[in-house]
User: Which sequence fits this backbone?
């Protein structure tokens, strides 16, 4: 989903499917829907960047985890909103995948709170690894579906490149897809370690997370 798409509900409908019957005021034609969607998306991306930046400074682990929790809730809010807006079994299943991934991000973020991480580090690590894998696959499927929005109904890379609407939408979905895989591989490297000493992989992990956060945010702003 894109902020541009939010401003063009007709384009949303052509790319993602017909609107699901919802109460008045929560339809993409309404300003309240657009504001909520845009704000939640922005909060998600920006707090991921801020949360990652905190990890470069000792003693800010708690603040980082809190920011990640807020960001994950922002992404989850977008997914829930879309799930109850659009219809179509395949489309809603695709959105449900993203929703599941965002929920795992919330759990994973909470798992990086110092008290939780000390108790059981697997909550944070595998919450992010699992969430990233689910979101990465879900976003790839969304990109594929956008590539099929042409007269032939089949996936066409040329359509993604030459059609402005499809290109923008695919760019957003791929931004989130790449961001998710950055967190997948970064968290996997974090789990493998070592995180201390001359062979520490922590700098690589943090910069991989920075890249992932930027891809998430870039996708939200297209």
Assistant:
């Amino acid at each position: 989903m894109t902020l541009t798409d939010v401003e063009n509900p007709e384009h949303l409908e052509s790319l993602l499917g017909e609107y699901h019957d919802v109460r008045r005021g929560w339809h993409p034609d309404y300003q309240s829907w657009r504001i909520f969607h845009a704000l939640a998306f922005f909060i998600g991306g920006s707090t991921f960047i801020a949360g990652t930046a905190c990890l470069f400074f000792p003693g800010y682990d708690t603040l980082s985890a809190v920011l990640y929790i807020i960001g994950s809730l922002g992404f989850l809010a977008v997914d829930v909103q879309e799930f109850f807006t659009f219809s179509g079994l395949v489309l809603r299943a695709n959105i449900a995948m993203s929703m599941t991934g965002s929920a795992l991000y919330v759990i994973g973020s909470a798992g990086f709170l110092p008290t939780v991480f000390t108790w059981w580090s697997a909550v944070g690590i595998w919450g992010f690894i699992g969430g990233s894998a689910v979101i990465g696959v879900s976003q790839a499927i969304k990109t594929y579906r956008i590539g099929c929005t042409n007269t032939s109904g089949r996936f066409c890379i040329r359509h993604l490149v030459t059609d402005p609407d499809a290109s923008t939408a695919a760019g957003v979905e791929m931004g989130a897809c790449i961001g998710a895989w950055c967190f997948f591989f970064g968290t996997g490297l974090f789990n493998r370690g070592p995180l201390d000493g001359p062979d520490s992989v922590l700098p690589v992990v943090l910069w991989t997370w920075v890249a992932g956060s930027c891809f998430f945010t870039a996708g939200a702003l297209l």
Residues 1-14 have pLDDT under 50 and may be disordered.
